[in-house]
Design a protein that fits this description.
This protein is of the alpha+beta class and 113 residues long. 24% of the residues lie in helices and 29% in strands. The chain is built from 4 helices and 7 strands, in the order E-E-H-H-E-E-E-H-E-H-E. The protein has a 7-stranded antiparallel sheet with strand order 6-5-4-3-2-1-7. The mean pLDDT is 92.
Length: 113
């Protein structure tokens, strides 16, 4: 199974009748990772802090997923696209950790087929 374009899910919240609580990240193609990291917000200001986009939100929220490649086996974060235009502001107010590490995401994730 190719890694690019797969959707990996995790249990994000308690389920109810209308929502199972599973959220997904779609692993982007390399050109999309580069564009999200260098050409769009929130990537533009946080690239200098080591954050690189690895995925998009298949639900269409526009809030991409990033890892900080300045650390080994980094956590995976969803970073809100409308959380500011300064790196420190974005990283303080617009970040949600979705996995403790990139390896945890792949090891424990639910692959959508």
């Amino acid at each position: 199974m190719p890694l690019i374009n797969i959707e990996i899910g995790w249990q994000a919240s308690e389920s109810d009748d209308d929502y199972d609580g599973i959220e997904y990240v779609q692993i982007l193609e390399p050109i999309q990772m580069i564009e999200e990291s260098f050409d769009y917000y929130p990537g533009i200001p946080i690239i200098e802090k080591g954050y690189v986009c690895i995925g998009g939100d298949p639900s269409g929220s526009g809030d991409p997923y990033f890892v900080n490649f300045k650390t080994n086996n980094p956590p995976v974060y969803q970073i809100y696209h409308d959380s500011g235009d300064e790196a420190d502001e974005i990283l303080k107010n617009g970040v949600v950790k979705v996995a403790n590490s990139l390896s945890d995401l792949f090891k424990n994730g639910i692959v959508s087929v």
